[in-house]
Amino acid sequence: ARHTGPPDGGWGWMIVAGCFLVTICTRAVTRCISIFFVEFQAYFGQDYARTAWIHSIVDCATMLCAPLGSLISNHVSCQVGIMLGGLLASTGLILSSFATSLEHLYLSLGVLTGLGFALCYSPAIAMVGKYFNKRKALAYGIAMSGSGIGTFILAPVVQLLIEQFSWRGALLILGGFVLNLCVCGALMRPISLKEDCKTAPEFLEQDYAPETEKQDLKRMSICSPLIKLWPHECSCYCSWKEYDFLLMPGFMVLAVSVLFMAYGCSPLFVYLVPYALSVGVSHHQAAFLMSILGVIDIIGNITFGWLTDRRCLKKHRYFCYLFAVGMDGLCCLFLPVLRSFPLLVPFSFTFGYFDGAYVTLIPVMTADVVGTSLLSSALGVVYFLHAIPYLVSPPVAGWLVDTTGSYTASFLLCGFSMIFSSALLCFARLAKKIKRTHLRSLTGDTGMKQHIWTNGAIAYSVTAELDQKDVEFLAVDTNSFSNR
Predict the structure, then answer these.
(1) Tell me, what is one Gene Ontology molecular-function annotation carried by this entry (predicted)?
(2) How far is the first Cα of the chain from the last one, in angstroms, to the nearest whole number?
(3) pLDDT tens for each residue of 74-133
(4) Residue 94 belongs to some domain of the structure
(5) Domain region containing 419
(6) 173-201 burial, b if ≥16 CB within 10 A, otherwise e?
(7) Is 463 within the bounds of a domain?
(8) Is 220 contained in some domain?
(9) Is residue 329 included in any domain, yes or no?
(10) For the chain, what is the domain count?
Protein backbone atom coordinates (compact mmCIF):
# COMPACT_ATOMS: atom_id res chain seq x y z
CA ALA A 1 0.00 0.00 0.00
CA ARG A 2 1.11 3.55 -0.72
CA HIS A 3 1.87 5.70 2.32
CA THR A 4 1.35 9.46 2.32
CA GLY A 5 4.48 9.77 4.46
CA PRO A 6 7.04 7.66 6.35
CA PRO A 7 5.22 5.53 8.97
CA ASP A 8 7.81 6.29 11.71
CA GLY A 9 7.35 2.85 13.21
CA GLY A 10 5.70 -0.48 12.49
CA TRP A 11 7.79 -2.55 10.09
CA GLY A 12 10.23 0.36 10.11
CA TRP A 13 11.76 -1.03 13.30
CA MET A 14 12.47 -4.29 11.47
CA ILE A 15 14.17 -2.22 8.79
CA VAL A 16 16.27 -0.63 11.54
CA ALA A 17 17.14 -4.10 12.86
CA GLY A 18 18.13 -5.22 9.38
CA CYS A 19 20.30 -2.14 8.85
CA PHE A 20 21.82 -2.71 12.29
CA LEU A 21 22.92 -6.20 11.23
CA VAL A 22 24.18 -4.87 7.88
CA THR A 23 26.45 -2.36 9.63
CA ILE A 24 27.80 -5.13 11.88
CA CYS A 25 28.58 -7.38 8.91
CA THR A 26 30.10 -4.60 6.79
CA ARG A 27 31.63 -1.73 8.76
CA ALA A 28 32.50 -3.69 11.93
CA VAL A 29 34.12 -6.51 9.93
CA THR A 30 36.06 -3.93 7.88
CA ARG A 31 37.36 -2.30 11.07
CA CYS A 32 38.41 -5.68 12.47
CA ILE A 33 40.53 -6.32 9.39
CA SER A 34 43.08 -4.00 11.04
CA ILE A 35 43.59 -6.69 13.70
CA PHE A 36 44.99 -8.91 10.93
CA PHE A 37 47.47 -6.17 10.01
CA VAL A 38 50.37 -7.43 12.15
CA GLU A 39 49.66 -11.05 11.13
CA PHE A 40 49.72 -10.21 7.43
CA GLN A 41 52.87 -8.13 7.81
CA ALA A 42 54.71 -10.89 9.65
CA TYR A 43 53.52 -13.74 7.40
CA PHE A 44 54.24 -12.06 4.06
CA GLY A 45 57.25 -10.04 5.27
CA GLN A 46 56.09 -6.71 3.80
CA ASP A 47 56.34 -3.11 5.01
CA TYR A 48 53.57 -0.92 6.45
CA ALA A 49 52.63 0.77 3.20
CA ARG A 50 52.15 -2.43 1.14
CA THR A 51 50.22 -4.18 3.91
CA ALA A 52 47.96 -1.14 4.45
CA TRP A 53 46.69 -1.46 0.86
CA ILE A 54 44.49 -4.39 1.96
CA HIS A 55 42.39 -2.23 4.29
CA SER A 56 42.47 0.64 1.80
CA ILE A 57 41.16 -1.45 -1.08
CA VAL A 58 38.27 -3.01 0.87
CA ASP A 59 37.21 0.44 2.14
CA CYS A 60 37.68 2.00 -1.30
CA ALA A 61 35.73 -0.77 -3.09
CA THR A 62 32.89 -0.46 -0.55
CA MET A 63 32.53 3.26 -1.17
CA LEU A 64 33.50 3.34 -4.85
CA CYS A 65 30.78 0.85 -5.75
CA ALA A 66 28.14 2.44 -3.49
CA PRO A 67 26.34 4.03 -6.50
CA LEU A 68 26.08 0.51 -7.99
CA GLY A 69 24.33 -0.62 -4.82
CA SER A 70 21.93 2.32 -5.09
CA LEU A 71 21.31 1.57 -8.77
CA ILE A 72 20.39 -2.06 -8.10
CA SER A 73 18.23 -0.99 -5.15
CA ASN A 74 16.35 1.63 -7.20
CA HIS A 75 15.80 -0.35 -10.38
CA VAL A 76 15.69 -4.01 -9.31
CA SER A 77 15.18 -4.55 -5.57
CA CYS A 78 16.83 -3.59 -2.30
CA GLN A 79 16.37 -7.18 -1.15
CA VAL A 80 18.09 -8.65 -4.20
CA GLY A 81 20.99 -6.20 -3.95
CA ILE A 82 21.72 -6.94 -0.28
CA MET A 83 21.46 -10.72 -0.73
CA LEU A 84 23.80 -10.62 -3.73
CA GLY A 85 26.21 -8.44 -1.76
CA GLY A 86 26.20 -10.92 1.12
CA LEU A 87 27.14 -13.78 -1.19
CA LEU A 88 29.98 -11.79 -2.80
CA ALA A 89 31.40 -10.59 0.54
CA SER A 90 31.31 -14.07 2.04
CA THR A 91 33.01 -15.53 -1.03
CA GLY A 92 35.76 -12.91 -0.82
CA LEU A 93 36.52 -13.67 2.83
CA ILE A 94 36.55 -17.42 2.26
CA LEU A 95 38.90 -17.09 -0.74
CA SER A 96 41.15 -14.84 1.35
CA SER A 97 41.72 -17.65 3.82
CA PHE A 98 43.63 -19.47 1.04
CA ALA A 99 45.80 -16.45 0.10
CA THR A 100 49.45 -17.04 -0.79
CA SER A 101 50.43 -13.41 -1.42
CA LEU A 102 49.38 -9.85 -0.68
CA GLU A 103 48.21 -9.49 -4.27
CA HIS A 104 45.78 -12.36 -3.67
CA LEU A 105 44.41 -10.52 -0.63
CA TYR A 106 44.12 -7.30 -2.64
CA LEU A 107 41.71 -9.05 -5.03
CA SER A 108 39.76 -11.33 -2.68
CA LEU A 109 39.64 -9.45 0.63
CA GLY A 110 39.90 -6.03 -1.01
CA VAL A 111 37.96 -5.96 -4.27
CA LEU A 112 35.50 -8.86 -3.97
CA THR A 113 34.58 -8.39 -0.31
CA GLY A 114 34.43 -4.61 -0.75
CA LEU A 115 32.09 -4.97 -3.74
CA GLY A 116 29.80 -7.19 -1.70
CA PHE A 117 29.72 -4.69 1.17
CA ALA A 118 28.93 -1.89 -1.32
CA LEU A 119 25.80 -3.66 -2.58
CA CYS A 120 24.52 -3.90 1.01
CA TYR A 121 25.54 -0.72 2.81
CA SER A 122 23.98 2.32 1.13
CA PRO A 123 20.65 0.60 0.14
CA ALA A 124 20.10 -0.57 3.74
CA ILE A 125 20.79 2.91 5.12
CA ALA A 126 18.50 4.52 2.54
CA MET A 127 15.64 2.19 3.52
CA VAL A 128 15.73 3.56 7.09
CA GLY A 129 15.27 7.07 5.70
CA LYS A 130 12.18 5.97 3.77
CA TYR A 131 10.49 4.54 6.87
CA PHE A 132 11.26 7.39 9.30
CA ASN A 133 10.86 11.17 9.36
CA LYS A 134 10.13 12.56 12.84
CA ARG A 135 12.42 10.04 14.54
CA LYS A 136 14.89 9.75 11.68
CA ALA A 137 18.04 10.63 13.62
CA LEU A 138 17.17 8.20 16.43
CA ALA A 139 16.43 5.42 13.93
CA TYR A 140 19.76 6.07 12.20
CA GLY A 141 21.52 6.18 15.56
CA ILE A 142 20.25 2.71 16.44
CA ALA A 143 20.92 1.32 12.96
CA MET A 144 24.44 2.77 12.69
CA SER A 145 25.34 1.63 16.20
CA GLY A 146 25.80 -1.81 14.67
CA SER A 147 29.24 -0.66 13.61
CA GLY A 148 30.25 0.10 17.20
CA ILE A 149 28.59 -2.93 18.78
CA GLY A 150 30.09 -5.17 16.11
CA THR A 151 33.56 -3.72 16.68
CA PHE A 152 33.20 -4.11 20.46
CA ILE A 153 32.24 -7.78 20.16
CA LEU A 154 34.24 -8.82 17.10
CA ALA A 155 37.59 -7.22 18.01
CA PRO A 156 38.39 -9.58 20.93
CA VAL A 157 36.65 -12.48 19.20
CA VAL A 158 38.77 -12.05 16.06
CA GLN A 159 41.93 -11.83 18.18
CA LEU A 160 40.92 -15.08 19.90
CA LEU A 161 40.13 -16.76 16.57
CA ILE A 162 43.55 -15.77 15.22
CA GLU A 163 45.24 -17.29 18.28
CA GLN A 164 43.21 -20.50 18.08
CA PHE A 165 42.90 -21.08 14.31
CA SER A 166 45.51 -18.72 12.77
CA TRP A 167 44.55 -15.83 10.49
CA ARG A 168 43.38 -18.25 7.78
CA GLY A 169 40.86 -19.95 10.07
CA ALA A 170 39.67 -16.59 11.40
CA LEU A 171 38.96 -15.31 7.85
CA LEU A 172 37.09 -18.52 7.02
CA ILE A 173 34.84 -18.13 10.07
CA LEU A 174 34.23 -14.46 9.26
CA GLY A 175 33.19 -15.53 5.75
CA GLY A 176 30.45 -17.70 7.23
CA PHE A 177 29.38 -14.94 9.60
CA VAL A 178 29.00 -12.42 6.78
CA LEU A 179 26.45 -14.70 5.07
CA ASN A 180 23.97 -13.25 7.57
CA LEU A 181 23.71 -10.32 5.14
CA CYS A 182 21.35 -12.51 3.10
CA VAL A 183 19.01 -12.65 6.11
CA CYS A 184 19.21 -8.86 6.45
CA GLY A 185 18.23 -8.47 2.81
CA ALA A 186 15.08 -10.51 3.35
CA LEU A 187 13.88 -7.98 5.97
CA MET A 188 14.02 -5.01 3.58
CA ARG A 189 10.35 -4.79 2.58
CA PRO A 190 9.93 -2.00 -0.02
CA ILE A 191 7.64 0.95 0.71
CA SER A 192 5.89 3.33 -1.69
CA LEU A 193 5.66 6.95 -0.56
CA LYS A 194 3.49 9.71 -2.00
CA GLU A 195 6.53 11.92 -2.66
CA ASP A 196 8.04 9.18 -4.86
CA CYS A 197 5.07 9.37 -7.22
CA LYS A 198 6.39 12.07 -9.52
CA THR A 199 5.74 11.87 -13.21
CA ALA A 200 7.94 13.10 -16.02
CA PRO A 201 6.00 16.16 -17.23
CA GLU A 202 8.47 17.14 -19.92
CA PHE A 203 8.33 13.67 -21.40
CA LEU A 204 4.55 13.55 -21.28
CA GLU A 205 4.39 16.71 -23.38
CA GLN A 206 6.36 15.13 -26.22
CA ASP A 207 4.54 14.09 -29.38
CA TYR A 208 6.52 10.87 -29.77
CA ALA A 209 5.18 9.37 -26.55
CA PRO A 210 2.15 7.12 -27.29
CA GLU A 211 -1.00 7.97 -25.40
CA THR A 212 -1.17 4.57 -23.70
CA GLU A 213 2.39 4.97 -22.42
CA LYS A 214 1.61 8.49 -21.20
CA GLN A 215 -1.22 7.10 -19.09
CA ASP A 216 1.09 4.44 -17.68
CA LEU A 217 3.74 7.02 -16.85
CA LYS A 218 1.22 9.11 -14.92
CA ARG A 219 0.76 6.17 -12.58
CA MET A 220 4.45 5.29 -12.29
CA SER A 221 7.01 6.57 -9.82
CA ILE A 222 9.94 8.50 -11.16
CA CYS A 223 12.10 5.68 -9.75
CA SER A 224 10.08 2.72 -11.09
CA PRO A 225 12.18 -0.31 -12.08
CA LEU A 226 13.82 -0.02 -15.49
CA ILE A 227 12.77 -3.57 -16.28
CA LYS A 228 9.38 -2.12 -17.23
CA LEU A 229 8.96 -1.51 -20.95
CA TRP A 230 9.62 2.21 -20.94
CA PRO A 231 10.56 4.27 -23.98
CA HIS A 232 14.26 5.09 -24.19
CA GLU A 233 13.63 8.79 -23.67
CA CYS A 234 11.77 8.24 -20.42
CA SER A 235 14.50 5.95 -19.09
CA CYS A 236 17.06 8.66 -19.80
CA TYR A 237 14.86 11.27 -18.11
CA CYS A 238 14.45 9.16 -14.98
CA SER A 239 18.17 8.37 -14.80
CA TRP A 240 18.97 12.08 -15.01
CA LYS A 241 16.27 13.03 -12.51
CA GLU A 242 17.74 10.70 -9.88
CA TYR A 243 21.03 12.63 -9.91
CA ASP A 244 20.02 16.24 -10.54
CA PHE A 245 20.87 16.97 -6.89
CA LEU A 246 24.54 16.94 -7.95
CA LEU A 247 24.13 20.58 -9.05
CA MET A 248 22.74 21.75 -5.71
CA PRO A 249 25.19 24.14 -3.97
CA GLY A 250 24.49 22.62 -0.57
CA PHE A 251 25.29 19.13 -1.81
CA MET A 252 28.50 20.31 -3.51
CA VAL A 253 29.83 21.76 -0.25
CA LEU A 254 28.87 18.61 1.64
CA ALA A 255 30.63 16.49 -0.99
CA VAL A 256 33.92 18.41 -0.73
CA SER A 257 33.87 18.28 3.06
CA VAL A 258 33.25 14.52 2.96
CA LEU A 259 36.47 14.05 0.96
CA PHE A 260 38.60 15.61 3.70
CA MET A 261 36.65 13.97 6.51
CA ALA A 262 37.07 10.51 4.95
CA TYR A 263 40.81 11.07 4.49
CA GLY A 264 41.22 11.90 8.16
CA CYS A 265 39.17 9.13 9.74
CA SER A 266 40.38 6.07 7.82
CA PRO A 267 44.05 5.67 8.94
CA LEU A 268 43.14 5.77 12.63
CA PHE A 269 41.27 2.45 12.40
CA VAL A 270 44.19 0.89 10.54
CA TYR A 271 47.02 2.15 12.74
CA LEU A 272 45.57 2.39 16.25
CA VAL A 273 46.47 -1.22 17.08
CA PRO A 274 49.97 -1.08 15.48
CA TYR A 275 50.64 2.28 17.18
CA ALA A 276 49.58 0.90 20.55
CA LEU A 277 51.88 -2.09 20.07
CA SER A 278 54.77 0.23 19.11
CA VAL A 279 54.52 2.11 22.44
CA GLY A 280 54.60 -1.07 24.51
CA VAL A 281 50.92 -1.98 24.85
CA SER A 282 50.17 -5.74 24.81
CA HIS A 283 48.22 -7.42 22.01
CA HIS A 284 45.15 -7.95 24.18
CA GLN A 285 45.22 -4.36 25.45
CA ALA A 286 45.55 -3.07 21.87
CA ALA A 287 42.52 -5.14 20.80
CA PHE A 288 40.70 -3.85 23.90
CA LEU A 289 41.30 -0.28 22.70
CA MET A 290 39.38 -1.15 19.54
CA SER A 291 36.62 -2.63 21.68
CA ILE A 292 36.40 0.53 23.77
CA LEU A 293 36.26 2.63 20.63
CA GLY A 294 33.48 0.40 19.35
CA VAL A 295 31.27 0.48 22.44
CA ILE A 296 31.62 4.25 22.86
CA ASP A 297 30.84 4.55 19.16
CA ILE A 298 27.48 2.95 20.02
CA ILE A 299 26.77 5.56 22.67
CA GLY A 300 27.66 8.30 20.20
CA ASN A 301 25.34 6.81 17.58
CA ILE A 302 22.29 6.54 19.81
CA THR A 303 22.68 9.58 22.10
CA PHE A 304 23.57 11.98 19.28
CA GLY A 305 20.71 10.58 17.21
CA TRP A 306 18.27 11.05 20.09
CA LEU A 307 19.57 14.52 20.96
CA THR A 308 19.41 15.86 17.41
CA ASP A 309 15.80 14.67 17.13
CA ARG A 310 14.84 16.97 20.02
CA ARG A 311 13.10 20.19 19.01
CA CYS A 312 15.82 22.38 20.50
CA LEU A 313 18.61 20.75 18.41
CA LYS A 314 16.77 19.50 15.35
CA LYS A 315 17.34 22.74 13.46
CA HIS A 316 21.02 22.73 14.48
CA ARG A 317 21.94 19.31 13.09
CA TYR A 318 24.34 20.97 10.66
CA PHE A 319 26.45 22.47 13.45
CA CYS A 320 26.23 19.28 15.52
CA TYR A 321 27.75 17.39 12.59
CA LEU A 322 30.63 19.80 12.00
CA PHE A 323 31.32 19.96 15.76
CA ALA A 324 31.63 16.16 15.92
CA VAL A 325 33.98 16.04 12.92
CA GLY A 326 36.11 18.84 14.37
CA MET A 327 36.41 17.08 17.74
CA ASP A 328 37.62 13.90 16.09
CA GLY A 329 40.24 15.98 14.29
CA LEU A 330 41.46 17.41 17.60
CA CYS A 331 41.70 13.89 19.03
CA CYS A 332 43.99 12.85 16.17
CA LEU A 333 46.24 15.87 16.81
CA PHE A 334 46.77 14.82 20.43
CA LEU A 335 47.28 11.11 19.74
CA PRO A 336 51.10 11.22 19.15
CA VAL A 337 51.70 12.35 22.76
CA LEU A 338 49.61 9.49 24.22
CA ARG A 339 52.18 6.74 24.71
CA SER A 340 50.71 4.40 27.31
CA PHE A 341 47.58 2.30 27.74
CA PRO A 342 46.05 4.53 30.50
CA LEU A 343 46.39 7.54 28.17
CA LEU A 344 45.09 5.74 25.08
CA VAL A 345 41.89 4.66 26.84
CA PRO A 346 40.50 8.25 27.11
CA PHE A 347 41.44 8.78 23.48
CA SER A 348 39.38 5.72 22.47
CA PHE A 349 36.45 7.05 24.50
CA THR A 350 36.54 10.54 22.96
CA PHE A 351 37.30 9.58 19.37
CA GLY A 352 34.76 6.73 19.46
CA TYR A 353 31.96 8.96 20.75
CA PHE A 354 32.32 11.68 18.15
CA ASP A 355 32.95 9.16 15.38
CA GLY A 356 29.60 7.58 16.19
CA ALA A 357 28.01 11.03 16.33
CA TYR A 358 28.96 12.24 12.86
CA VAL A 359 28.46 8.83 11.22
CA THR A 360 24.85 8.91 12.44
CA LEU A 361 24.30 12.39 11.03
CA ILE A 362 25.75 11.76 7.54
CA PRO A 363 22.52 10.21 6.12
CA VAL A 364 20.38 12.67 8.11
CA MET A 365 22.21 15.66 6.65
CA THR A 366 22.09 14.14 3.18
CA ALA A 367 18.33 13.69 3.49
CA ASP A 368 17.96 17.29 4.68
CA VAL A 369 19.83 18.49 1.57
CA VAL A 370 18.30 16.33 -1.20
CA GLY A 371 15.03 14.99 0.27
CA THR A 372 13.88 11.45 1.04
CA SER A 373 12.92 10.46 -2.52
CA LEU A 374 16.52 10.92 -3.75
CA LEU A 375 18.21 9.67 -0.58
CA SER A 376 19.33 6.31 -1.97
CA SER A 377 21.06 7.88 -4.98
CA ALA A 378 22.54 10.70 -2.88
CA LEU A 379 23.93 8.31 -0.28
CA GLY A 380 25.46 6.27 -3.08
CA VAL A 381 27.31 9.40 -4.24
CA VAL A 382 28.29 10.44 -0.69
CA TYR A 383 29.77 7.03 0.07
CA PHE A 384 31.35 6.96 -3.38
CA LEU A 385 33.22 10.13 -2.40
CA HIS A 386 34.72 8.21 0.54
CA ALA A 387 36.43 5.85 -1.92
CA ILE A 388 39.52 7.82 -3.01
CA PRO A 389 40.42 9.06 0.52
CA TYR A 390 39.89 5.55 1.91
CA LEU A 391 42.13 4.17 -0.84
CA VAL A 392 45.06 6.57 -0.51
CA SER A 393 45.09 7.67 3.16
CA PRO A 394 46.26 4.42 4.86
CA PRO A 395 49.12 3.83 2.37
CA VAL A 396 50.13 7.51 2.61
CA ALA A 397 50.10 7.21 6.40
CA GLY A 398 52.11 3.99 6.13
CA TRP A 399 54.63 5.69 3.86
CA LEU A 400 55.01 8.50 6.38
CA VAL A 401 55.60 5.92 9.13
CA ASP A 402 58.23 4.13 7.03
CA THR A 403 59.90 7.43 6.09
CA THR A 404 59.88 9.24 9.44
CA GLY A 405 60.05 6.24 11.75
CA SER A 406 57.07 7.46 13.82
CA TYR A 407 53.31 7.89 13.62
CA THR A 408 53.33 11.62 14.43
CA ALA A 409 53.17 12.98 10.88
CA SER A 410 50.43 10.52 9.91
CA PHE A 411 48.16 11.41 12.81
CA LEU A 412 48.74 15.16 12.45
CA LEU A 413 47.77 15.00 8.77
CA CYS A 414 44.58 13.12 9.68
CA GLY A 415 43.69 15.65 12.37
CA PHE A 416 44.18 18.72 10.17
CA SER A 417 42.19 17.09 7.36
CA MET A 418 39.14 16.55 9.59
CA ILE A 419 39.38 20.03 11.09
CA PHE A 420 39.50 21.52 7.58
CA SER A 421 36.37 19.52 6.66
CA SER A 422 34.54 20.99 9.66
CA ALA A 423 35.79 24.53 8.99
CA LEU A 424 34.69 24.32 5.34
CA LEU A 425 31.10 23.53 6.35
CA CYS A 426 31.16 26.33 8.92
CA PHE A 427 32.36 28.94 6.39
CA ALA A 428 29.82 27.71 3.82
CA ARG A 429 26.96 28.18 6.28
CA LEU A 430 28.17 31.65 7.25
CA ALA A 431 28.45 32.64 3.58
CA LYS A 432 24.92 31.36 2.98
CA LYS A 433 23.53 33.41 5.86
CA ILE A 434 25.32 36.54 4.65
CA LYS A 435 23.96 36.06 1.14
CA ARG A 436 20.42 35.45 2.43
CA THR A 437 20.59 38.60 4.53
CA HIS A 438 21.80 40.55 1.51
CA LEU A 439 18.93 39.24 -0.67
CA ARG A 440 16.38 40.14 2.00
CA SER A 441 17.75 43.66 2.30
CA LEU A 442 17.53 44.15 -1.48
CA THR A 443 14.08 42.74 -2.16
CA GLY A 444 12.23 42.18 1.10
CA ASP A 445 9.85 39.26 1.57
CA THR A 446 7.04 40.80 -0.53
CA GLY A 447 9.37 41.70 -3.35
CA MET A 448 10.84 38.23 -3.40
CA LYS A 449 7.40 36.63 -3.61
CA GLN A 450 6.53 38.81 -6.58
CA HIS A 451 9.95 38.13 -8.16
CA ILE A 452 9.41 34.38 -7.98
CA TRP A 453 5.81 34.65 -9.16
CA THR A 454 6.77 36.61 -12.26
CA ASN A 455 9.99 34.75 -12.97
CA GLY A 456 9.05 31.11 -12.56
CA ALA A 457 11.87 29.96 -14.83
CA ILE A 458 14.50 31.04 -12.30
CA ALA A 459 12.59 30.22 -9.13
CA TYR A 460 14.63 27.17 -8.32
CA SER A 461 17.96 28.91 -8.90
CA VAL A 462 16.92 31.70 -6.55
CA THR A 463 15.45 29.56 -3.82
CA ALA A 464 18.36 27.10 -3.91
CA GLU A 465 20.36 29.71 -2.05
CA LEU A 466 17.79 30.17 0.71
CA ASP A 467 16.67 28.09 3.66
CA GLN A 468 13.28 26.40 3.52
CA LYS A 469 11.80 28.83 6.03
CA ASP A 470 12.52 31.71 3.65
CA VAL A 471 10.55 30.21 0.76
CA GLU A 472 7.52 28.70 2.46
CA PHE A 473 5.38 30.68 0.08
CA LEU A 474 6.85 28.82 -2.91
CA ALA A 475 4.45 26.10 -4.14
CA VAL A 476 4.97 23.29 -6.59
CA ASP A 477 2.33 24.19 -9.14
CA THR A 478 0.21 27.10 -10.35
CA ASN A 479 -2.81 26.07 -8.32
CA SER A 480 -0.80 26.35 -5.10
CA PHE A 481 0.32 29.83 -6.14
CA SER A 482 -3.24 30.95 -6.85
CA ASN A 483 -4.51 29.52 -3.55
CA ARG A 484 -1.91 31.52 -1.64
Answers:
(1) transmembrane transporter activity
(2) 32
(3) 778 888 889 999 999 999 999 999 988 888 999 999 899 999 998 988 888 888 878 887
(4) yes
(5) 244-434
(6) bbbebbbebbebbebbeebebebbbeebe
(7) no
(8) no
(9) yes
(10) 2
